[in-house]
């Protein structure tokens, strides 16, 4: 399996793992939901978990890969405020935890770029498939 074939499956796996984590261990996710959002943090945790699971399925399937990968890029941008909140909330924690929270912030950029790359690759794959 080539790198270009593995990349979408790895992205789907990441999304699926995070989606499952939202249900298996919801408290850390509840804690980073911005208070300005309406409703309960748990509802947002579960909704984002469902979104990640749905996107994982979409990215895993070639037919829906492009749309799902673009939506995943949007999701990665959309969860950035939660990561900012976590970094702020953890500013008084021990240095390793504080560093981990701050390190999450720039990590969103490669995630967005990865999802865009998977979407672009899906578009190329469809063109290539149509020619054969």
What's the SSE pattern?
HHHHHH
The parts where pLDDT drops under 50 for at least 5 residues are: 127-132
Number of DSSP strand runs: 0
**Treating each run of at least 4 consecutive H or I residues as one helix, how many helices?**
6
Radius of gyration using CA atoms only: 16 Å
Number of domains: 1
Structural class: mainly alpha
Provide the helix percentage.
Answer: over 70%
Measured by DSSP, the beta-strand proportion falls in under 5%
Overall 3D geometry?
globular
Roughly how many Å apart are the termini? 19 Å
In a few lines, what is going on in this structure?
The protein has 132 residues and is mainly alpha-helical.
Explain this structure to me?
By secondary structure, this protein is an all-alpha fold. Helix content is 82%, strand content 0%. Helix 1 crosses helix 6, helix 3 runs antiparallel to helix 4 and helix 5 (80-89) packs antiparallel against helix 6 (95-131). Residues 127-132 have low confidence and may be disordered. The protein has helices at 3-24, 27-31, 41-60, 65-78, 80-89, 95-131. 21% of the residues are buried. It has one domain. The chain has six helices and no strands. This is DoxX family protein.
List the helices and strands and how they pair.
Layout: H1 3-24, H2 27-31, H3 41-60, H4 65-78, H5 80-89, H6 95-131
List keywords for this structure.
132 residues, mainly alpha, 6 helices, 82% helix, disordered C terminus, DoxX family protein
């Amino acid at each position: 399996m080539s790198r270009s074939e593995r990349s979408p499956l790895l992205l789907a796996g990441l999304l699926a793992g995070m989606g499952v984590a939202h249900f298996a261990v919801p408290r850390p996710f509840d804690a980073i939901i911005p208070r300005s959002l309406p409703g309960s943090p748990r509802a947002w945790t579960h909704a984002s978990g469902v979104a990640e699971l749905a996107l994982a399925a979409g990215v895993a399937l070639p037919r829906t890969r492009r749309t799902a990968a673009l939506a995943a890029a949007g999701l990665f941008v959309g969860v950035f405020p939660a990561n900012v909140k976590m970094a702020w909330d953890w500013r008084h924690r021990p240095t390793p935890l504080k560093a981990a929270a701050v390190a999450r912030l720039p990590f969103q950029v490669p995630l967005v770029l990865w999802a865009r790359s998977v979407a672009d690759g899906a578009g190329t794959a469809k063109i290539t498939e149509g020619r054969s």
